[in-house]
Amino acid sequence: MNPNKAVKAEKRLGPFAYKDEAKDLLESDVPIWMPCTCRRNPLVPAQLMRLHIVTPKAPVSSSLNIRIQPSSVNQNGYFYPNSEPFELTYNKYYILRLPFAYEGPDGPVHPPRSAKSCGRLFKNWFTAKHQRL
């Protein structure tokens, strides 16, 4: 699975179709802006706005450690909503809304003008560990 491409689910494959790909996605940096999958010309950038997280009923400890670099790699400016990882409770559905606009030390960070991958959500933003009963 490539984090620079949108994931499209196929209902016929069932809920476990992307089990291995999800692991790869969580262990990769995810772009904040990427080319839109719409068929619009000229291509426009799409922005990562929400993360949908479902925690299982199983005895699992889950946490979020959101760290975002909205600009390119060679520029400063990071977005950290929490200094420590945020613990999630089991058997819940969470929607994490990411900022629409970012600001760095040099002022606002503008989205790319062309449809290219830019910015990143750092890898390992979500962790889950099995707890023994």
UniProtKB/TrEMBL annotation:
The keyword Aminoacyl-tRNA synthetase does not apply. Keywords: Nonsense-mediated mRNA decay. GO terms for biological process: nuclear-transcribed mRNA catabolic process, nonsense-mediated decay. It comes from the Eukaryota. Pfam families: Smg8_Smg9. InterPro entries: SMG8-like. Involved in nonsense-mediated decay (NMD) of mRNAs containing premature stop codons. Belongs to the SMG8 family. This is Nonsense-mediated mRNA decay factor SMG8.
